[in-house]
Design goal:
Layout: E1 5-8, H1 27-37, E2 40-43, H2 49-61, H3 67-72, E3 74-75, E4 96-100, E5 114-116, H4 127-139
Parallel strand pairs: 1-2, 1-4, 2-3, 4-5
The protein binds magnesium ion (MG).
């Protein structure tokens, strides 16, 4: 399986919410992994682009975002009731995977591209480590574990 683009949700996935922008535990390690492992990393979020970029720049100033990733990070411009992966430019839907805590944003016919992460609102948490291993298996061509 060829994973060309990794799409990341922002709120409850990487941070708590855009207002307080608290980083999820292991955020820097996770983003470093994503940066090294995938050709393209994109933000796919309900937060508007300028606020989302502000959040990422703020996280960068606090040391949670690798510079290389920040420089290349794309923002997916989208509308509608789903985070339709066809909004990601220059790639086939089958080559995009999205990490998101909320199934209601995922198009029913694109669930195979979805990597579910437990929503985070603060506190100790190992989800980013778990997702890292799910993504490693994907990138290595192993079938994703169900669920
Ligand atoms: Mg979310």
């Amino acid at each position: 399986m060829c994973v060309k683009v990794l799409a990341l949700d922002l709120e409850r996935t990487l941070i708590d919410d855009a207002l307080s922008a608290r980083p999820r535990p292991r955020l820097r390690n996770f983003l470093t992994f994503c940066d090294q492992r995938f050709e393209r990393v994109v933000l796919f979020t309900t937060v508007d682009e300028s606020s989302a970029r502000e959040v990422m720049e703020d996280l960068d100033r606090r040391g949670y975002v690798p510079r290389h990733l920040l420089a290349l990070l794309e923002y997916v411009d989208w509308t509608g009731e789903y985070k339709d992966l066809r909004f990601v430019p220059d790639v086939q839907v089958e080559e995009v995977f999205i990490v998101d805590d909320d199934v209601s944003w995922i198009r029913p016919d694109q669930r195979a591209q979805w990597i579910a992460i437990a929503p985070w609102d603060g506190g100790p948490d190992d989800e980013l480590l778990r997702i890292e291993s799910v993504l490693t298996n994907l990138a290595d061509g192993t079938a994703p574990s169900g669920g």
